[in-house]
Specification:
It contains 53 helices and 20 strands. By secondary structure, it is an alpha+beta fold.
């Protein structure tokens, strides 16, 4: 292409967009532009600029099209006068524009044809185009021109569409949409012109429907299965698209009586044409039953062609109902061709269609494949049924109301191929006595059931306005009642089950309150609508829109409800509204001779039940029909006018016995016989209801005439039958009681026999029982004394033996020191849930020293467990098999699983909970190490610190000696002598490890796993940091559980879930025993360094200051490392003394920490004259601090305020310590702490052997404490903090919460819509995702924001989880309204969002578009999952339950 052409094109584009912007504010220019555009050119028709542009639309490229469309919209469509002129041009060129679009290669949004929505939806324009340009006819003709494939009869043929034809067909469907736009606003007044043009359009529409009448005919396959599934979808697509148009056509006809009459005539004429060959070539046959005979044609649905598409018949049925609804049928009967109608012709095709459905259900069309099953499904489906199935029922009702019901029933029997069975006496007996094919019997039974069901529908379905005397709301109410009879439903389910009109409305909102209660949702699930009890009486078991499955569910639910309410379980037919006059004769079908013959025959089969092939559901349908007839007669009698005779005499007809030759009993007599039949238990209630209603009707009839004798007979008969029934029930109950007693006697005899045989066994069991109960009885004795968890005064608890069962081999074993190890499945993960500083990042994990935890808890290691116990060797075997299986699977298919075997992950064999290691079960380790029980002369804190400092010094000298190699060994020994060892300290002594090899191996396994996960390094069991990580994990897990309990206001020692309890117990005991498998020197080194942070020691540089140490982590480390030093001390200082002194020392350091960082603003609640000893003591301590810090500390506030902040600040530490020592030493918790409510400060202090006035600790040990406080305060970091140069954590630390979400979801959408991708220069992000932990908005699921993480490209969310949540993250995908859980790179799942609509439902994907509001409870639940570290576990369970989640590439999100 020449460059100058391209230049001109670009200039043209720029010029048009410039023009567009100018006319935005220049009204005059816009009008000139419109005038010039629409002005005819020199070449006659279609020569104006607008015409030429439109007609060459498909030749232009996308950019040019959108520019001039934009210009059209801002000029021609902005002014009513020009819009009208443009609409006329558009309509004139409509056919060409659509043809261009069909062959065009661009989507509709880039075609000029798409402007139809702007024009046709304006009611005045649409109406003007119909009258002046005959638009309806143009659209329909254009549509039909494009569907040229027809068969010999002129019907559409979609057989084997090519891809190109299918593409064209999809494009042509947009024409139907245009027709819908034209018809969507209905005219209020009609002009003759509009009538004429609408009827012309209606003619064209009938032509279209005529081409659809009978399309896709099918023939039953016999012998072999169909080879190729026929094309059926195109025809149904066409039907679905036209459904609303057909409905709207009928709505238009209903608005004007003249139009309706004309339309009815035209439709009938077209139907006659379609049925032109109705009787050709078919020989007529005569049917006769009960003295009635009728002529019809021989036709078998199972042998001839049959089609499911009958739009012309169905349109006529719709119009016929409108004649009744608008009363035109009664006002102008002379104008209607009702006398010309041939009812057998009207009912023929709809009846064939319904017989086809019945035969498919009976399994006669199995060889026709799935295409037929799908067609039948859509025929009944909510999307199509309004203009298909429902209209077929109406057409049959129309036919029956115009003909002799006996004739109709005979034709129907003939079409169902059941005529032989009912017309020949004793046919059933012969049929079943000859050994016929079992399938045939089954098929006939199903067909009889289906036929009876059809009769029930014809008489019972009168809820369409025009058929019965009802209005539209009654119809919707009934639909809702029957849907809610199946089960309570959510709003969205209910909407899906109701048909939508052309505006996508179901009309449900207006009536739902009248028939249902709304039940709000809980933490999970959705809001549900439940049926109001008073609506249950309107339930009809044979409601015509139930599928088979729904019908049985509804029946079960309703019977269950009746049983709960202690009512009769019969489900009688409901009382129905009266028919409209045009359909009034329909009810006579129930009392016609043929109907009575059918009922009598089936009841006869049931009475002589062995000789015949019959089914219970057949009988149930007959009972239902009898019930309907009785209800009908009762209604007639109650509403009868004076002097009118009720012609409906069903009760008299069923009381009469049969005619002379057979003398069959009357229907009533047979019902009485069946009432006592033992094989019909289920239907007894229904039969009893029928007899009761029968007697009630008799009474009404007799009260109107006068003959009281017969009435009493009926009642006596009923009474007798009732007494008989009672006696029968009583007899059965007695037999059942005797049988029960006999069985019980046998069982107790067998029991006695067993006990005699196994006496010794029983003796043992009884002894065991008594011993366990004795232990239980003793336990309360412990709680009488004050319970103390640590120190020399620790409460001694008798050691209880612990027996556990392995979940893999089911073997029971006692937990002992020397036995094989038992382990708990556990999951270790890094966590930032308690973090106060998420920006901290370990630069080089290989060199990082985790000995001191900073109080901001920036990243901890959490251990959780599902609490299931295994033998260590069983677990090892199980894990090896999982590994082997995984390797085999990898060779087959490269899918992720929900666990990563390479990282040591597996699923707990019992609960499938994600785990990555195991914790060994141990006895309390302190009881094993703490052999010295002489507590007489234990040192006080000052002495103990001095002794410990000496031992540490001695150790350091020794270590130095060992590290400097010396030639002469004699020199070494000399040095040893020179070194003054403290009394009883033997540094060369190495204690013996008490544990069995198996337990030692498991201690190492879990220790290494914690180290590997916590530091993200390769496993190395020799690394000196392993014990530190184990202690840290124990401390962090206890802290997080204390946090959860505090947040939920639960007591500290309340009933913890057993999995948590087991996990904490095992974890604490493991951490206390781990030093036995670590190098003694390493653990001693850690102790020395930890100790030096509180008691200064010259040999350690760069120790953190007191403000930068988390005291609980320090406490756990010191207590658990102390045995490594104490085991070499033989001076008589016990382990528990050390525990107590360490605890006191750390507590005092924590108090100083709190005082240094406390915010001392007075809250205006100051209490005057601090008199309590605590307040005075605190003030004294604060003064000391004031001196040591060189007056840099803030001014002295009131003692009361200080004491308050100390108590509040130290509570979490005390609670954590109580949990720690409880699990470490096994001392039961005091009952006072087991209840929630008041603060348990005093009880905690007693349990932890602290004085309730904590400041006493300082006073008792003032000599050493003064110097320690001085050394802590003189640290340069403390000085910097006091001078305001740095921050420090203040106590108590606040709980971390997820971010605050807005109440209304739309504000989140607004926030996200303003968010642009940070990396692609202001482009809008396609999937904006909000981190719920820190509130950052991320650009997820896009290449622009991918980053590299550990050598792999990952999406923004995955990268964010590593910086914000140590690998786990919670996000809200704003555009989808979905919560996303991520863990690592390969794990993730979607979770229900905390936003609900007014109906208590979430809207994932924002498909329904209802306003959404925050549900606080659900958000709490997500927060709880986060606090409990259950995100990874939740993902594991979700991925196991739904395998599709495993295949998603989570790392790209």
């Amino acid at each position: 292409m020449h460059s100058s052409i391209v230049a001109h094109q670009n200039f043209g584009l720029k010029l048009l967009s410039w023009l567009g912007s100018i006319i935005g504010y220049s009204d005059g220019l816009r009008r000139i532009l419109c005038q010039v555009g629409l002005q005819e050119g020199p070449y006659g028709e279609n020569s104006s600029l607008v015409d030429r542009l439109m007609l060459s639309d498909s030749k232009l490229w996308k950019g040019a099209r959108s520019v001039y469309h934009q210009l059209f919209m801002s000029s021609l469509l902005m002014d009513l006068r020009y819009k009208k002129l443009f609409a006329i041009r558009f309509a004139k060129n409509y056919e060409r524009l659509q043809s261009d679009y069909v062959t065009d290669d661009h989507d509709r949004e880039f075609s000029i044809a798409d402007l139809s929505v702007q024009i046709f939806t304006v009611p005045s324009l649409a109406r003007m185009l119909i009258t002046e340009e005959n638009l309806m006819t143009i659209i329909i003709k254009t549509f039909m021109d494009h569907l040229r494939h027809r068969d010999a009869q002129g019907r559409f043929q979609f057989e084997r569409y090519t891809a190109l034809q299918a593409f064209k067909f999809r494009r042509v469907q947009s024409l139907i949409l245009d027709l819908k736009y034209v018809l969507i606003s209905k005219p209020t007044e009609w002009s003759d012109e509009l009538r004429q043009k609408f009827l012309e359009g209606f003619d064209a529409f009938l032509e279209l429907l005529k081409c659809m009448q009978g399309m896709d005919p099918i023939t039953r396959q016999v012998g072999q299965h169909i080879e190729m599934e026929p094309e059926w979808e195109a025809a149904f697509t066409l039907q679905m698209k036209l459904t609303h148009v057909i409905s709207m056509m009928q709505d238009w006809c209903a608005l004007d009586e003249k139009v309706l009459i004309e339309a009815y005539k035209k439709c009938l004429a077209v139907l006659m044409q379609c049925h032109g060959g109705f009787t050709d070539g078919e020989q007529p046959i005569t049917l006769s039953i009960c003295g009635h005979s009728v002529e019809t044609i021989r036709y078998c649905v199972s042998q001839e062609k049959v089609s499911i598409h009958l739009p012309v018949s169905r349109l006529l049925a719709g119009l016929h109902v409108l004649l009744s609804k608008s009363e035109v049928a009664y006002k102008f009967p002379e104008l209607l061709p009702l006398s010309e109608l041939s009812p057998p012709m009207l009912i023929e095709h709809p009846l064939r269609c319904l017989v086809l459905c019945a035969q498919v259900h009976a399994g006669m069309w199995r060889r026709n494949g799935f295409s037929l099953v799908n067609q039948i499904y859509y025929y009944h489906n909510v999307k199509c049924r309004r203009e298909m199935f429902d209209k077929d029922i109406v057409m049959l009702q129309t036919g029956v109301s115009m003909m002799d019901p006996n004739h109709f029933l005979m034709i129907m029997l003939s079409r169902f191929e059941l005529y032989q069975i009912f017309s020949t006496p004793d046919y059933g007996k012969r049929f079943s006595s000859e050994i016929t094919h079992k399938d045939v019997v089954q098929q006939n039974n199903t067909l009889i059931e289906e036929m009876l069901y059809l009769i029930i529908m014809l008489v019972g379905e009168r809820f369409s306005p025009g058929v019965g005397q009802v209005n539209t709301t009654d119809e919707i109410k009934r639909e809702i009642i029957h849907q809610l009879s199946i089960k309570p439903m959510a709003h969205s389910e209910l909407v899906k089950s109701l048909p939508e009109d052309e505006n996508k409305e179901t009309g449900m909102e207006s009536v739902i309150e009248a028939v249902a209660h709304f039940k709000k949702p809980g933490l999970t699930g959705r809001g549900m609508y439940e049926l109001k009890p008073e609506c249950a009486k309107e339930f009809n078991l044979y409601f015509y829109h139930f599928s088979r499955a729904e019908q049985s569910k509804a029946e079960e639910a309703q019977r269950k409800l009746k049983r709960q309410n202690r009512e009769d379980t019969a489900l009688p037919p409901p009382v129905l509204p009266p028919f409209c006059p045009l359909f009034a004769s329909l009810v006579n079908i129930l009392q016609s001779d043929v109907m009575l013959c059918i009922m009598g025959t089936i009841l006869q089969w049931a009475v002589e039940h062995n000789g015949y092939a019959w089914s219970e559901s057949m009988l149930q349908r007959v009972l239902h029909l009898i019930g309907m007839a009785l209800q009908e007669e009762k209604q007639h009698l109650e509403n009868v006018m004076e002097e009118h005779v009720v012609t409906f005499t069903f009760t008299q007809k069923i009381s009469k016995p049969g005619e002379a030759p057979n003398n069959s009993p009357s229907i009533l007599a047979m019902l009485e016989t069946l009432q006592n039949a033992p094989y019909l238990e289920v239907h007894k209630d229904m039969i009893r209801w029928i007899l009761k209603t029968f007697n009630a009707i008799k009474k009404i009839r007799e009260s109107s005439s006068t003959s009281p004798v017969a009435e009493t007979e009926g009642t006596i008969m009923e009474e007798n039958s009732r007494d008989k029934d009672k006696a029968e029930r009583k007899r059965k109950a007695e037999i059942a009681r005797l049988r029960r007693e006999k069985i019980m006697a046998q069982m107790s005899e067998m029991q006695r026999h067993f006990i005699d045989e196994n006496k010794e066994l029983f003796q043992q069991t009884l002894e065991l029982d008594s011993s366990t109960s004795a232990v239980l009885d003793n336990s309360p004795l412990v709680s009488d004394v004050t319970l103390t968890a640590l120190g020399p005064a620790q409460t001694q608890v008798p050691e209880q033996r612990q027996f556990v069962t392995c979940i893999l081999c089911q073997e029971e074993q006692e937990v002992k020191v020397e036995s094989r190890a038992m382990v708990l499945a556990a999951f270790v993960q890094r966590s930032t849930v308690l973090s106060k500083n998420r920006s901290k990042f370990i630069q080089d994990p290989e060199k990082y020293d985790p000995l001191f935890m900073h109080p901001d808890l920036s990243c901890g290691t959490h251990t959780g467990s599902c609490g299931h116990i295994m033998h260590a060797h069983c677990w090892q075997r199980y894990f090896d098999s999982v590994q082997a299986k995984e390797q085999r699977r990898q060779q087959r298919l490269r899918l992720h699983t929900s666990y990563d075997v390479e990282n040591g992950e597996f699923l707990c064999p019992l609960c499938e909970c994600l785990s990555n290691t195991v914790i060994p079960l141990l006895l309390p380790p302190r009881n094993i190490f703490n052999s010295k029980s002489n507590f007489s002369n234990q040192p006080n804190l000052t002495q103990w610190i001095r002794i410990t400092s000496q031992q540490i010094k001695a150790l350091q000298v020794l270590r130095k000696e060992e590290s400097t190699p010396n030639t002469a060994s004699s020199k070494n020994s000399e040095n040893m002598d020179k070194l003054q060892l403290p009394d009883g300290f033997r540094p060369n002594f190495h204690p013996k490890n008490p544990y069995s090899e198996s337990i030692k191996e498991m201690l190492t396994t879990f220790g290494t796993a914690t180290y590997k996960v916590g530091l993200k390094v390769h496993p190395n069991e020799e690394d000196p940091r392993v014990p530190i990580m184990c202690w840290g994990s124990c401390a962090y897990t206890i802290q997080s559980i204390e946090r959860i309990l505090s947040d939920e206001d639960k007591p500290l020692f309340g009933p913890l879930p057993c999995r948590l309890d087991d996990c904490l117990r095992s974890l604490t005991r493991f951490a206390a025993a781990h030093w036995t498998v670590a190098s003694l020197a390493v653990v001693q080194g850690h102790f020395c360094k930890l100790f030096a942070s509180l008691v200064p020691n010259d040999s350690y540089e760069d120790l953190p200051c007191i403000l930068d140490i988390d005291m609980f982590h320090l406490l756990v480390g010191l207590v658990l490392a102390f045995p490594a030093l104490q085991c070499q001390d033989f001076s008589g200082v016990s382990l528990s003394t050390g525990d107590l002194h360490i605890f006191h020392l750390v507590t005092m350091a924590h108090i100083i920490q709190i005082l240094l960082t406390s915010c001392t603003e007075d809250n205006g609640m100051d209490q005057e004259n601090p008199t309590g000893e605590e307040e005075l003591a605190v003030l004294a301590l604060y003064k000391t601090l004031h001196q040591h810090t060189g007056s840099a500390l803030k001014e002295i506030p009131s003692g009361w305020h200080l004491w308050k902040s100390i108590r509040a600040g130290i509570m979490p530490f005390l609670k954590c310590s109580a949990l720690f020592f409880h699990y470490l030493n096994g001392v039961p918790s005091p009952p006072d702490i087991q209840v929630s409510g008041a603060s348990h400060f005093e009880h905690l202090c007693n349990y932890l052997s602290l004085p309730t006035n904590l400041i006493c600790l300082f006073q008792e040990n003032s000599e050493i404490m003064n110097s320690l406080i001085e050394s802590w305060c003189h640290n340069s970091e403390v000085k910097r903090y006091l001078e305001g140069e740095r921050d420090a954590i203040s106590y108590p630390r606040e709980s971390n919460k997820l971010i605050d979400l807005p109440e209304d979801y739309s504000s989140l959408i607004n926030q996200a819509s303003n968010f642009s991708c940070p990396k692609s220069g202001g482009d809008k992000s396609r999937a904006p995702t909000l981190c719920l932990v820190c509130g950052t908005l991320l650009c997820s699921q896009s290449y622009c924001c991918q980053t590299e993480l550990e050598g792999e490209d990952v999406g923004a969310c995955t990268a964010h989880t590593y910086s914000c949540g140590s690998g786990a993250g919670i996000f809200l995908r704003v555009r989808e309204c979905q919560v996303l859980f991520l863990a690592g790179k390969t794990k993730g799942c979607f979770y229900s969002p905390p936003y609900l609509d007014d109906y208590g439902e979430t809207d994932q994907g924002l498909r329904r578009g209802n306003p959404l509001h925050l549900c606080k409870e659900r958000f709490q639940k997500i927060q709880k999952l986060w606090h409990q570290h259950s995100i990874t576990e939740e993902i594991g369970h979700a991925q196991e339950a739904n395998q599709t989640l495993v295949g998603i590439d989570w790392q790209h999100l």
